Amino acid sequence: MADRLRMSGISTGYDTAQLIEQLMAVERRPVLLMQQRQNAIKTRSDAWRDVGMRLSTLKSRAASLKSASVFNVKSAASSADKIVSASANSTATTGTYKVWVDRLATSTRAAGASELGRGLDMQEKLADAGFSITPTAGTFTINGVQIRIDADTVMSDGVDDASSNSVFGLINNSAAGVTASVVGNRMKLTANDGLSPVIVGSGGDTSNFLTAARLLGAASGTTITSQGSLGVAKTTVALTGARLGATIQSSVLGGVAEGETAGRLATALEGIETVTFTYQGAQYTTEALVAGDDMAAVAADLEAKMNAAAGLTD
């Protein structure tokens, strides 16, 4: 029985395990070649995808170059930056401009002969009349009588009778027994009998007119007067809209410039509305300002766009 047992390779001397492994490797070779080809195709696909993304970025960057703002960048320079500075936006007109300061402010304080602000515009709606505090629609009380005003009420329509929608007409033709007037930019309420004290205000008032007219808290008597001016100057707008009692003008290139608070001459130079000059307060006679195309900014913007499209920047 022992004569029937036989093991391959024992007597022949061949390494059958290695032979089998080599045969299996030959069988696997087509699969390996296919995997290598698949990897190569994926690499090329990724490369083309990256090219497509970069082309898309380039297209969007190039589209932005259509904007006029890219090429219309303006700069403004002063021959004396410590004295006067300038800035310009993309619609500024190229040119050279001069600014003169005829007189400088000193530490001397001078008081005007009249108030800075203009008096009330009596025939304008109360909201537009020039009050420092805008009157609101509703009711206010004088001597226990309610006076009702609305959005169309004016101070005076020139007639001020019982049919007038004016403060004077409403008060003077009411049962309050007082006469309303404006004298020296202040409102006065005078008792018609010359004897009774004038009492203003009530907890049920729904309009702030008495506050806007500066009558609340005024000294009591047969006549009460506003504690301050009714029409006032606006200190936070351009001088031409500040409701000043007198017109202010300044000469720039022979024209009339619009002034602003804080020493700013802005948006009034004829033909160059977008150039802004700021006076720093130092003494000088004539200094030149130049506004022109800022080609350095244009070039920098183009370079930044192209670098971004090429993937040279984040």
Short note summarizing the structure:
By secondary structure, this protein is α+β, with helices and mostly antiparallel strands. It has helices at residues 16-64, 68-71, 167-172, 209-212, 295-309; strands at residues 74-78, 84-88, 95-100, 138-142, 145-149, 178-183, 186-191, 223-225, 251-252, 255-256, 259-260, 264-265, 275-279, 286-293.
Structure characterization notes:
- The chain has helices at residues 16-64, 68-71, 167-172, 209-212, 295-309, and strands at 74-78, 84-88, 95-100, 138-142, 145-149, 178-183, 186-191, 223-225, 251-252, 255-256, 259-260, 264-265, 275-279, 286-293.
- Strand 6 and strand 7 form a beta hairpin.
- It starts with 15 loop residues before the first helix and ends in a 5-residue tail after the last helix.
- The chain has a four-stranded antiparallel sheet, with no helix packed on it. A three-stranded antiparallel sheet has the order 1-14-3, with no helix packed on it.
- The chain has 314 residues and is α+β, with helices and mostly antiparallel strands.
- Among the domains are: 117-246, no CATH class; 250-310, no CATH class.
- Residues 249-291 have low confidence and may be disordered.
- 18% of the residues are buried.
- Helix 1 runs antiparallel to helix 5.
- The protein contains five helices and 14 strands.
Portion of residues in helices? 10-25%
Helix and strand succession? HHEEEEEHEEHEEEEEEEH
Radius of gyration over C-alpha positions, nearest whole angstrom: 43 Å
Identify the overall geometry: elongated
Which secondary-structure class do the elements indicate? Answer: alpha+beta
% residues in beta strands: 15-25%
Low-pLDDT regions: 249-291
Major sheet: arrangement of strands = 2-13-12-11
Mean pLDDT: 73
What is the tally of helical segments? 5
CA-to-CA gap between the ends?
83 Å
Largest sheet: 4 strands, antiparallel
The number of E-state strands comes to 14
